[in-house]
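Hi P.,

Sorry for the delay on this. The queue was packed all week, but I finally got your sequence through. Input first:
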Amino acid sequence: MATSNTRTSATRRAVQFALANRLASERERWIERNAFFHSQDEEYLRFLVPEGQRVLELGCETGRMLAALKPAYGVGVDWSAPMIDIARQRHPAQEFICGDIEDPDVISALNGPFDAIILTHSIGLLMDCQALFEKLHPLCTPATRIVVAYYSKLWEPVLFLAERLGLKMPSAQQNWLSTDDIANLLALSEFDVIKREWRQLLPRRFFGLGELVNRYIAPWPVIRRACLRNYVVARPLGLPERANWPATVVVPCRNERGNIAAAVARIPNFCDELEILFIEGHSEDGTLEEIHRVIGANPERNIKVLVQDGKGKGDAVRKGFAHAQGQVLMILDADLTTPPEWLPKFYRALTSGQGEFINGTRLVYPMDVDAMRMLNYFANRIFSWLFTWLLNQRFTDTLCGTKVLTRDHYQQIAANRAYFGEFDPFGDFDLIFGAAKLNLKVVEIPVSYASRAYGETQISRFRHGWLLLKMVVFAFRKMKAF
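Then the structure:
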């Protein structure tokens, strides 16, 4: 039986190899014939893989996709020598290697590590997907993202017919894998799936109808599962623990005088170098004076205060993160409705590698009776479902004030802020959308939610509810409808 399977695999590979060599000179012509599909595919991969990274494409064909990603250092590998010759002629800025991506010697000889490793169609031609994924670990850092793009199995008969009608380039026998299949293979190979996406309900232009359908109809739940193209993004597991990293707890505060001393007393010393940084927002109740008093009363702790230049929590968080000394950046709302005693959970989740963006959620455990109004509670439930769909990662509570990430990831979010612009007065969505754009692994930590002991809430349910609706529309435009 083993001999028969080996013979079948060898025959299949021989057919694939011969077909790739025979069609190499025609590949660019086929791409031009289906330019709309390929341009939409390129556009989404550029969304997933920012410019200026170290990118490896396995199964690069003529190098068109690799060049479109505009890498700082790009390497393409393909087993077809005619394909590689065309790639080298067309894209001399990138490096192209002729070799079998399933050959361990070819993979081990690559000049890694890479920021992104992409397979744009080649997973369908592999004999052993899991074995290839396992070989990629030496080419990865904790920040590396594996991006697999493939065709939906639902479209198999349509693509078969398109080939027979001469509308699609001929192909050899394929592995028809769903996103569940790909995710399972990645998990077996010790990669952690971050997100999945489905795009292109209409892969033809159809006088402009294709673009409208793909932008405004295709992204919706249920409908998107009928799309032609799907994408899976993953990161390596087995990451080393970053024990005892310095941390900064940023505490935005306005009119919170009665909570300052309690905040300092209740924040545990969960690492050797812990900075508490208050960002004071032009209070009228003596909050700034109270912070200075508490600093003087606690000389053994590293407590600092800055007065924000603008207004709003978003402005306060940005100033705090810009001046923070820690490698781990944490937000704690000064109203203390999220207990400071829970901060070590967030710290451990980040430094252990369980997640890269740690978000608190108030909607799991029972909360104090007066902690959240009923209307706010149901609105938060609705928005959590919407944002989970929009961002392709689980978000049950976007407005929980406690969020944690590394300084390096925050700096990347800040550097890419131009994609979204200055849009968020809360500060929460600037971080959430930025983390989603960077494909950071999101982990939620349930927290108990207490009633405010001092002062009044600074959230208006109707004004801020309207802003939340605007955030949904904004996220749809920036994360889905493009």
